[in-house]
Amino acid sequence: MLAAGTESRQRPEGIRSLTCQGRKGALTALRDAAVLKTIYAYDTRRTESSKVDLVDLRRSPKVPQFRCYGTMMVRFGKASKGAPPERRTVLMVPEMDWAVDVPDEWVTEIRPHFSPGRHPALWVTERVGRLSSRSINEAFVTARDDAGLDEDLDLHCLWRSYITHLTEFGYPARFVQEQVGHLHASTTAISMGSRTSTATRCWQHP
Question: How far is CA 93 from the centre of its chain?
């Protein structure tokens, strides 16, 4: 469902071609693919992803090779009951370096075709509004169904798969907890121990 990292390096000419041909829905499809790849690479939830702004993508002095996409500031993270949204900074990990070109291509090659003007949102609609969490979920459902994956899989499987992969990469539990925004280490521990759960099926075709 998620393409290899080399795809984004080959796409710009295709974007220009699709735009010139005026193919209906092509830009929307490219946006939705970029949204899903970015959600997986930075492990953000639906609402968090919807509310990310362009300024939330930033450089990290620790990984200058990732350019402006070394970190993502999540300003509307999942909050405890009665508390304001939690904030966190998600770091792009080296194992996900294939994903760096995804937001770069979106910002520089695809997003301008939506004529967003000065709209602050990273993800915008054809009517120059902020892409809603519902639309993001619909993009996942469409991609899942087109790929013939289990209909029980939901967008959250990308989030769970991210935790599984960080665990397999050898990152400590505390780092994983901070990346995904868990308030309690026990929650992260449960997720890290679920390597054989339905999360892994997100990457397997029938």
Answer: 13
